[in-house]
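Risk register update: the risk of archive-format incompatibility is retired. Evidence:
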Amino acid sequence: MTINTILFDLDGTLINTNDLIIASFTHTLNHYYPGEYGRDDIVGFIGEPLYESFARMNKEGADDMVATYREHNIANHDLLVTEYEGVFQTIEILHKRGYKLGIVTTKMRNTVEMGLKLTKLDQFFDVVVTLDDVKNAKPHPEPLQQAMEKLGAKPEETMMVGDSQYDIKGGKNANVKTAAVVWTIKGKDFLAEFNPDYMLETMPDLLDIVGASVK
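Archived output:
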């Protein structure tokens, strides 16, 4: 069966928020644990909900750490966020060709909407599932299942595209095809360990995979 529905992670997949995320983690961790965490530690946190990352350090103080992170993140958002090359054109083609498109992210809705609006990608997505909308974040299948339900999509017709192990695991748990992006900050080899169905060297590669290339 052909793919007619594509779900995308946002950060690190469609938009480059790496500098923003690292800066916000660095700001927060240096405030609470000066000198204890470096860039490699921070990269390991990317892709999971903030609270889970901070709760492993200090469960009682995790809410305060999340608040500190988000304050910095929102204040610096538009200065540090950019769109990956080829993303806008690819999503625009998929939209024009009638594919059902959704965002499935572990971010809160306010910053998701900021990123989509900044890059003008907001016009293309019929469904956006954020951390606010679910009880269980990726890799639990709930966010993907919710997006598919809202889009009227079947798992066998759906693909999840992302930059972290949580996206690939979430896709497999929801019984959909998976595609990993090689520009992930986690590294191509790391994502390959989770056996995605496809590896995207560039976002336009997706058009060939789903049969949407312009002839």
